[in-house]
Amino acid sequence: MKGKQISPNFNEDEFRCKGKNCCGGQVCIDYELVFGLQKLRDYITQKTGKQHDFIITCGYRCPKHNRQVGGATASAHLSGKAIDFYVNGLSIAQTWLFIEKMGVNNFSGMGSYPEEHPPIIHVDSLPRYQRWVKRNGQYQYLF
């Protein structure tokens, strides 16, 4: 069964738990967060004149999958309030710059995993403003 389209470019299946031997692909979505991602995609298309694929590497995580990947016990992924992704054809630095220039209010938290392959951006909608990067296994909080 194919998931429903939740914005012009995103389908709910992209945000399902991707764990193995856990919940069977449950999904929990913060639609405002997806709306912000859609606004970002539209903004990048407008500024570059090209369509770029957004690859969602992690949306919702069930508790079992969160433990399997070593996620934080209070991870925003557990409530569907976080998305990890990368944009084909853009570096994480370019993507980060587009987010900051656009001023996407839907992303209270934003971080990057530059050592992942491919490098990814994390955005969330938790009730605090935070920017960070994870390098050498350590989170460095920018503000």
Task: Describe the protein's architecture and organization.
The chain has about 140 residues and is α+β, with helices and mostly antiparallel strands. It has a single domain (about 10-140), classed as 2-Layer Sandwich (Muramoyl-pentapeptide Carboxypeptidase, domain 2), CATH 3.30.1380. The protein contains 3 helices and 6 strands; from the N terminus they run H-E-H-E-H-E-E-E-E. A 6-stranded mixed sheet has the order 1-2-4-3-5-6, covered by helices on one side. The mean pLDDT is about 95.
What is this structure's SSE topology?
Layout: H1 31-48, E1 54-58, H2 63-68, E2 82-87, H3 92-102, E3 109-113, E4 120-124, E5 130-135, E6 138-141
How would you classify the helix and strand content by structural class?
Answer: alpha+beta
What assembly state would you assign to the polypeptide chains in this entry?
single chain
Q: Ranges with pLDDT <50 over ≥5 residues?
A: none
The N- to C-terminal Cα distance equals 42 Å
Largest sheet: 6 strands, mixed
Number of strands: 6
The helix-strand sequence is HEHEHEEEE
In total, the number of domains comes to 1
Widest sheet, order of strands: 1-2-4-3-5-6
Overall geometry: globular
